[in-house]
């Protein structure tokens, strides 16, 4: 019997090949009717035999195009209309909704097949794309999203490409960036002095391979910016890259051609495999199995970040040698943003790279590789950028006005909100240098333009000295401002992701966040809802002698912790050539010694006290080394840390923790065992406090978030203990554990506080 269904699909379903997908599906299943884009998404009028309709709807649910995000499918039965064909109806005039731009994704299987098919007209053509793959966000200049508003505008389509573009049955129907060797962009190989070496793709790829094998560093323009590549299996090029990049410790990411190659030297769990092969192609941090890459790739660490190729050029390069393993690190100087403009790349990277592979299509929005790790078969973000940004985070209730939240000053990502979506920006890094600040400002401008957002309320952290706070003041131009506490934002970000409305227990652990008592927080036990929070507990305060300086020279924190615990400074391993008496005087007089309680800072101090790390070259280095030391053993000593509780607060004694660490040191316990005992002490004490808060409040939902949870031992240990005790544990899954996710929390808290403006 013939029936007629009206099917409405909401979510990101426009500009991602949804209508041609429906069109083809209808032809396959002998469905008559039409499909069109409208305000809510895509509407389908479908008539056919019951069985065929069932198959049709099942396929819509299960096989929708890879770049689409389906939020909801509504189906309603209608009178049979006796349609005699299926067609794509012209879009209905719609009220203005948010424009979605898909993230950049890796080349798809079909394109890859053509790319390696000598008979195909796009054989070895590095800009091959289709409706389901390739660059998007990185090439969009303005809305609406069509070719004229992308950096493909300079490349008018040839007749063949045009034909494909207009054919609803073609894989490239309405593929805005489609191109071929006749009409599209080209690749060029240059020496660092800008001498052109070649513009022939076959020659370029062979030469690049040869340079890399000879130990040279090659800058390769990718999707969201330049990579710096070198042979990862040899010490010399890796050390040269470290030296030139001024990056002594921070690990380099790798790329190799196949999952089989990765398996030779790194462990891969099923979830890790799935993510490695996903269309987003993030870097995944994996445990080393066999040392076949240079130890300078990730000095001190037993984990290595790696990704599989995602651009056609990368595929071509790795097809030359199945054993090739390259360092593929962001093309920048340490702590600067990734280079993505060609002139700038030559300027900023010619001290680092010997050769440049560039192409003549502009990157409009830069985007670093995303970074993830997996614990208990659950993936977490360290950096959410290429492949994920600007996919929206959908919320249930609409925002009454457009909002902007500037994020934090470290690992920055900002957010905008309108309708029922929040869009987080790409990774913008640490906003210390003028160049990063400039890039941040232009990224904000770009976002507001391409998503057509006109914020009426501006939200930032409450830190008085943050760049983002000051910039938000300026952007607001007198419009309402809301300031949000850092750790509250961490917790609410997770509430938003998991659609939690009621109060939760929030454990927000990180290095630095400005507290409402004007001290530096970072070991926070909160009871929080979307609007406000109560601070229930924290580790006791200690001083950071010299403030910011102590964060770099972590031995100062070690000294301060000894001082606080009333222990002699002889316990500090790094005493030579240090202004110890001056620091002690500073502590004595509380001069330039801000109070802090961040877990990250405690890790720093203990790392110094155990002789593991004296000063750091990159954020979290001391803590990472301490974790790595703890991973060397399974033996530990139980440390019970004193916890003091009164009506208002529960305080875990940092002094007592330090005393007990030093006791173990006195007993000549091996350092790895002390390091592990320290981790477990933090877990145990934190668990106890969470437990007490549950007893006092009756709340059973607990959220863990903050940069300190990038520590595997801490995250896994606390998570498991809480679950064992019957807590419902929620973790950030769509946003990073670190400050890259706080803009989401800021936006939601801002929304809840709008009525107070
Ligand atoms: Zn494709
Ligand atoms: Zn063409």
Would you give an account of this structure?
The protein is an alpha/beta fold and 757 residues long. It has 3 domains: 2-88, Alpha-Beta Plaits; 187-373, DHBP synthase (Alpha-Beta Complex), CATH 3.90.870; 392-536 and 620-642 and 653-757, 2-Layer Sandwich (Nucleotidyltransferase, domain 5), CATH 3.30.420.560. The chain is 32% helix and 21% strand. The strands form 5 sheets. The chain has an 11-stranded mixed β-sheet with strand order 7-6-14-8-9-13-10-12-11-15-16, sandwiched between helices. Strands 28-29-25-24-23-30-31 form a 7-stranded mixed β-sheet, with helices on both faces. It has a 6-stranded mixed β-sheet with strand order 17-20-19-18-21-22, with helices on both faces. α20 (671-697) packs parallel to α21. The protein is globular, with a radius of gyration of 27 Å. The structure holds zinc ion (2 copies). One zinc ion is lined by residues 107-108, 110-111, 129-130, 132-133.
Topology:
Elements: E1 2-12, H1 18-29, E2 32-38, E3 41-49, H2 50-62, E4 69-78, E5 86-88, H3 109-115, H4 159-166, E6 187-191, E7 196-198, H5 201-213, E8 218-221, E9 226-231, H6 235-245, E10 254-256, H7 259-265, H8 270-276, E11 283-287, E12 303-307, H9 312-319, E13 325-330, H10 342-349, E14 355-359, E15 371-375, E16 378-383, E17 393-394, E18 403-405, E19 415-418, E20 421-424, H11 434-450, E21 457-461, H12 467-476, E22 481-484, H13 486-497, E23 504-514, E24 520-528, E25 533-539, E26 542-543, H14 548-552, H15 555-564, H16 580-589, E27 595-596, H17 599-609, H18 621-630, E28 643-645, E29 650-652, H19 654-666, H20 671-697, E30 701-705, H21 712-724, E31 728-730, H22 742-752
Parallel strand pairs: 2-5, 8-14, 10-12, 11-15, 18-21, 21-22, 23-30, 25-29, 30-31
Antiparallel strand pairs: 1-3, 1-4, 2-3, 6-7, 6-14, 8-9, 9-13, 10-13, 11-12, 15-16, 17-20, 18-19, 19-20, 23-24, 24-25, 26-27, 28-29
Helix pairs in contact: 1-2, 13-22, 15-16, 15-17, 17-18, 18-20, 19-20, 20-21
């Amino acid at each position: 019997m013939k029936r007629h269904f009206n099917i409405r699909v909401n979510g990101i379903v426009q500009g991602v090949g949804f209508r041609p997908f429906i069109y083809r599906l209808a032809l396959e299943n002998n469905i008559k009717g039409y499909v069109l884009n409208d305000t809510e998404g895509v509407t389908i009028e479908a008539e056919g035999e019951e069985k065929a309709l069932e198959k049709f709807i099942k396929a819509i649910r299960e096989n929708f195009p890879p770049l689409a995000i389906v939020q909801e499918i509504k189906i309603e039965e209608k009178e049979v209309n006796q349609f005699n064909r299926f067609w794509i109806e012209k879009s209905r005039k719609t009220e203005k909704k948010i424009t979605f731009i898909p993230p950049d994704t890796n080349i798809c299987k079909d394109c890859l097949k053509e790319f390696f098919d000598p008979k195909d007209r796009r054989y070895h053509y590095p800009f091959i794309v289709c409706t389901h793959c390739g660059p998007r966000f990185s090439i969009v200049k303005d809305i609406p999203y069509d070719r004229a508003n992308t950096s493909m505008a300079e490349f008018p389509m040839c007749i063949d490409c045009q034909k494909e573009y207009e054919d609803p049955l073609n894989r490239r129907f309405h593929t805005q960036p489609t191109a071929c060797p006749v009409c599209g962009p080209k690749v060029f190989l240059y020496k660092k002095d800008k001498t052109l070496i070649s513009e022939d793709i076959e020659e370029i790829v062979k030469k690049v391979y040869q340079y890399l094998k000879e130990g040279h560093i090659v800058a390769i323009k990718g999707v969201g910016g330049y990579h710096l590549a070198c042979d990862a299996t040899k010490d010399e090029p890796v050390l040269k890259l470290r030296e030139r990049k001024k990056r002594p410790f921070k690990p380099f990411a790798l790329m190799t051609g196949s999952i089989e190659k990765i398996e030779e030297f790194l462990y891969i769990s099923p979830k890790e495999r799935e993510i490695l092969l996903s269309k987003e192609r993030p870097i995944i941090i994996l445990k080393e199995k066999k040392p076949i890459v240079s130890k300078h790739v990730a000095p001190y660490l037993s984990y290595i970040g790696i990704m599989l190729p995602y651009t056609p050029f990368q595929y071509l390069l790795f097809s030359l040698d199945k054993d090739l393993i390259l360092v593929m690190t962001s093309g920048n100087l340490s702590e600067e943003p990734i280079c993505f403009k060609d002139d700038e790349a030559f300027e900023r990277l010619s001290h680092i790279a010997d050769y440049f592979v560039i192409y003549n299509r502009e990157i409009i929005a830069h985007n670093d590789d995303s970074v993830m790790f997996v614990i208990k078969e659950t993936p977490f973000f360290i950096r959410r950028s290429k492949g994920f940004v600007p996919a929206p985070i959908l919320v249930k209730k609409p925002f009454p006005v457009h909002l902007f939240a500037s994020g934090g000053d470290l690992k920055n990502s900002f957010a905008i909100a309108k309708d029922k979506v929040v869009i987080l920006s790409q990774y913008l890094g640490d906003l210390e240098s003028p160049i990063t600040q400039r890039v941040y400002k232009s990224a904000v401008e770009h976002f507001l333009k391409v998503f057509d957002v006109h914020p009426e309320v501006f939200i930032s952290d409450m830190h008085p000295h943050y760049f983002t706070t000051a910039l938000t003041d300026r952007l607001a131009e007198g419009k309402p401002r809301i300031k949000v506490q850092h750790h509250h934002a961490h917790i609410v970000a997770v509430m938003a992701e998991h659609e939690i409305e009621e109060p939760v227990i929030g454990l927000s652990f990180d290095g630095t966040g400005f507290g409402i008592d004007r001290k530096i927080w970072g070991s926070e036990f909160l009871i929080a809802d979307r609007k406000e929070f109560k601070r229930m507990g924290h580790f006791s305060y200690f001083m950071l002698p010299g403030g910011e300086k102590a964060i770099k020279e972590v031995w100062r924190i070690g000294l301060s912790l000894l001082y606080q615990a009333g222990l002699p400074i002889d316990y500090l391993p790094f005493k030579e050539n240090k202004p110890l008496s001056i620091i002690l005087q500073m502590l004595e007089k509380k001069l330039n010694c801000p109070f802090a309680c961040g877990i990250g800072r405690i890790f720093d101090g203990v790392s110094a006290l155990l002789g593991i790390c004296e000063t750091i070259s990159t954020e979290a280095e001391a803590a990472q080394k301490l974790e790595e030391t703890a991973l060397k053993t399974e033996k530990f000593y139980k440390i019970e840390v004193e916890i003091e509780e009164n009506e208002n607060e529960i305080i875990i004694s940092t002094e007592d923790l330090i005393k007990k660490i030093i006791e173990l040191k006195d007993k000549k316990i091996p350092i790895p065992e002390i390091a592990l005992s320290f981790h477990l002490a933090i877990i145990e004490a934190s668990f106890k406090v969470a437990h007490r808060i549950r007893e006092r409040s009756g709340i059973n939902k607990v959220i863990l978030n903050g940069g300190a949870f990038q520590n595997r031992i801490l995250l896994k240990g606390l998570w498991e203990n809480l679950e064992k005790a019957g807590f419902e544990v929620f973790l950030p899954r769509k946003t990073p554990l670190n400050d890259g996710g706080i803009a989401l929390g800021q936006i939601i808290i801002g929304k809840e506080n709008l009525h107070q403006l």
